[in-house]
Amino acid sequence: MRRNKVFAAGVATLALGLSLTACGTTEDKGDGGGDAGCDLSLAFFGPETGDAAGLGKPIIQGAQLAIDQHNEDADCKVKYVKYDSQGSPDEAPALATEAAGDESVIGIVGPAFSGESAAAGDTFAEAGLPTITPSATNPTLADNGWDTFHRALGNDATQGPAAARYIKDTLKASSVFVIDDASEYGAGLAGIVEKDLGGAVKGTDTIQQKQTDFSATVTKVTDAKPDAVFFGGYYAEATILIGQLRDGGFDGKFVVADGVKDPAFLDAGKAAEGTIITCPCIPDTDPAVADFAKAYSAEFGEAPGTYAAEAYDAASIFLAGIEDGIDNREDMLKFVNDYDEKGITKQLKFDDKGEPADVHVYAYTVKDGAIVPEGEIK
User: Which residues are in the Leucine-binding protein domain (predicted)?
Assistant: First the structure.
């Protein structure tokens, strides 16, 4: 078993060390630590700015924590490069070409979202640049034949049925209205939930990202009078949508998925109360990640957000390869493909399509203005 540096010296010693050094990190592309004798970088690919930056921040910081800990006593101090896609499939191709052209980049933590993953995947595959996404969940990403693609969490073929089970078995909802945001992620997930709910679906609708007036959708929902609404999409739209649904008279359950699991959703205030959020992301209260959560809080002054722990695991796989002396993409890809070690979120092992061998989906509830874990959806 490889030594996990998060826990090696104890949380108290670690917190002190992290407060004194932050080697190998960068706030902008092309800058950062490392030493003259080791020109190797790991890269984050996803939203650092823009409407979805709230979901990118924990991923950035989770990977940063792993790199900081590696660099504390490493002969090869790894640089950290960030490619800010703003979560946009339109921005992804050019950024992927830039990342692929930087020969020092030996692995990508990301891409963060499904749409940008689809847009960038061919470029990474052609460059032989291994990627491990801690957050992109569209199932079809694994069907593109990219030998560089890996996913550190369960996809929506597991999250969608889990959400449908929760709606039927726990909420006891006999009628459901399904809404999606037309994104690769949101539409794909909503389609899976709709299929699994079958005859319980009393209506569907599609909105658009950056839309702010949902009156037409609200009318369709209130006319259908469902027990629950499922929304496949991101928190920016969900925050507005739930407010307008409540104002329009909908008083049933609002069920969303991991794209909404961000503190910004709580800006909806009282309207967000009772919302159910599903996510293939381990709660930071789980004993398996308790020490990680303490270390993360010590470095960043806040609790780890959605997919911070999964990003830490993704970065740690690449760092384990570097510790083994790997200094090129070809060998790193083989290392990642063959990897089989216990991480902090799960056993980290990939099948021949890059999917994880160990998958879990959890439920969360918005309660008293906070996102509270309920437990794993079995």
Answer: 42-369
Q: Are residues 297 and 186 in the same domain?
A: no
Closest CA to 282 of 211, 356, 232: 356
Percent of the chain with pLDDT over 70: 90
pLDDT above 90 (res 356): yes
Residue of 148, 77, 144, 156 lying closest to 111 (CA atoms): 148
Please check whether residues 27 and 78 belong to one and the same domain.
yes
Residues 165 and 110 in one domain: no
Stretch (H or E) spanning 320: helix 308-323
Is residue 195 included in any domain, yes or no?
Answer: yes
d(CA 108, CA 129): 7
Mean pLDDT of all residues in 142-170:
98
- Contact residues for 255 (Cβ-Cβ < 8 A; gap 6+): 163, 166, 167, 171, 228, 229, 230, 231, 275, 276, 277, 278
Please state the pTM of the whole predicted model.
0.88
The confidence score (pLDDT) of residue 265 equals 98
CB 296, CB 308: distance < 8 Å = yes
Regarding beta strands 41-46 and 370-376, do their DSSP bridges make them parallel or antiparallel, or are they unpaired? unpaired
Same domain, 287 and 273: no
Q: Domain of 314?
A: 11-155+283-349
Q: Which two tokens stand for residue 273?
A: 């109360």
Distance from chain centroid for Cα 154: 10
Instruction: Indicate whether 164 and 150 sit together in one domain.
Output: no
Retrieve residue 246's tokens: 């409540």
Residues 80 and 32 in one domain: yes
